[in-house]
Design goal:
The complex is a heterodimer. Chain A is mainly α. Chain A is built from 9 helices and no strands. Classes of the chains: A mainly alpha, B mainly alpha.
Chain lengths: ~200, ~170
């Protein structure tokens, strides 16, 4: 019998983990649209470093706990892949970041660290959701996928064992970390909290 | 005005976020998210002001069936937490500033127009992808879902390309 996931825990736990989520996003600087956009010009690699570290830490722990039978991955939410919808959706969100300066989570962090421009972005996100809702009937074919796309993982697509996938991800993270740090020594370097006061 | 404390190293914050994400999976079987709060509250608001249209819109109908009461949805509580956590951290490290963050080349009114436009693209894109950089990118990435990596690759590709033009707005 595996112990995790527990499920049906009190919403107080969810609130507490939300506080932790917001805290770590703010302390890494990801509430700042200028810092987020400095990743897109390769000046400041904080976004890549933080996101990849997060994924590698969580994935290693999740599949490690699965290996030792403390956790049943079958019970976890694994999103179904919609290649077109997710590919094109990613393009839109990337453009939204370059133009608007945030993504949904960081806009809340931005607003609650005093950034009033985040309000306009948040208003825009609602607009985008209504726009999607209005044409959701037209887009339905994008979500008609074969059964093997349900909960599809990298292991299923590549045929590689999970340990190797995680090693490859660690490899990409470490490489990106060094490449990014090299870029950061060129030009203007990373954006510090003080720079945002200027 | 007090000098702001600097941001923590990305490796440390990445570990902090990674453990938070892990804890969420262990306790609730799902990851973290952000876009969901927009989608759920948009559905509720739509039902209030345009009941008929909402009832004919499958996207909202499905959402309202799944979570008929806004405050029963976990994502709302998580997002209240995110707001509190960000407020706490920015006050604690003296980084809280009421401001309109923009590059010097961009006027305040233009900043608002671009923020709104970027928001529309993000809202539409997240709805299309059924998740955002957190809900699909990080949470899907942690369980090694293919969708997460498809999303992340196109997210960064589009951002990097468009930034060749938009970088002038942030300097």
């Amino acid at each position: 019998m595996t112990t995790f996931p527990l499920q049906n825990v009190s919403l107080w736990w969810v609130l507490l983990l939300g506080i932790s989520f917001g805290f770590w996003l703010e302390v890494s600087g990801l509430g700042s649209p200028r810092k987020l956009n400095a990743q897109l010009t390769l000046r400041d690699w904080t976004v890549f470093k933080v996101m990849f570290t997060t994924i590698v830490v969580a994935a290693t722990a999740i599949y490690g706990l699965q290996f030792y039978e403390y956790l049943d991955v079958e019970l976890l939410k694994i999103p179904t892949v919609f290649y077109w919808a997710m590919g094109i959706g990613g393009l839109f969100v990337g453009c939204g970041l370059a133009i608007g300066g945030y993504c949904p989570g960081t806009s809340i962090v931005g607003l609650f660290s005093g950034r009033l421009d985040a309000l306009a972005f948040i208003g825009g996100v609602f607009g985008g959701v209504y726009l999607f809702a209005a044409c959701s009937k037209l887009l339905e074919p994008l979500y008609d996928v074969p059964e093997n796309h349900i909960r599809q993982t990298l292991m299923e697509v590549t045929g590689l064992p999970v340990s190797l996938i995680i090693l490859i991800l660690i490899g990409i993270a470490v490489t990106g970390y060094f490449v990014g740090t090299w870029f950061e020594t060129q030009h203007h370097g990373v954006i510090h909290a003080e720079d945002l006061d200027k | 005005m007090n000098l702001p404390k600097n941001f923590l190293p990305p490796l440390l914050s990445g570990i902090g976020l990674g453990l938070t994400l892990l804890a969420m999976f262990l306790l609730t079987a799902h990851g973290l998210g952000a876009y969901g709060v927009f989608k759920n509250s948009a559905a509720q608001f739509s039902q209030m002001i345009a009941t008929e249209w909402t009832a004919q819109t499958p996207f909202f109908v499905l959402l309202l069936e799944k979570s008929p009461h806004l405050f029963d949805a976990w994502i709302i509580w998580q997002m209240i937490g995110v707001a509190l956590g960000a407020l706490l951290a920015s006050l604690l490290f003296q980084r809280f500033r009421f401001k309109i963050e923009r590059g010097t080349a961009l006027s305040v009114s233009n900043r608002f127009v671009y923020a709104l436009l970027g928001g529309v693209l993000t809202g539409f894109g997240s709805a299309l992808a059924q998740g955002c950089s957190s809900g699909l990118g990080l949470s899907g990435g942690a369980v090694l879902a293919v969708g997460a990596f498809i999303f992340l690759v196109s997210f960064f590709a589009a951002g990097l390309l468009l930034a060749l033009y938009t970088k002038r707005y942030w300097l």
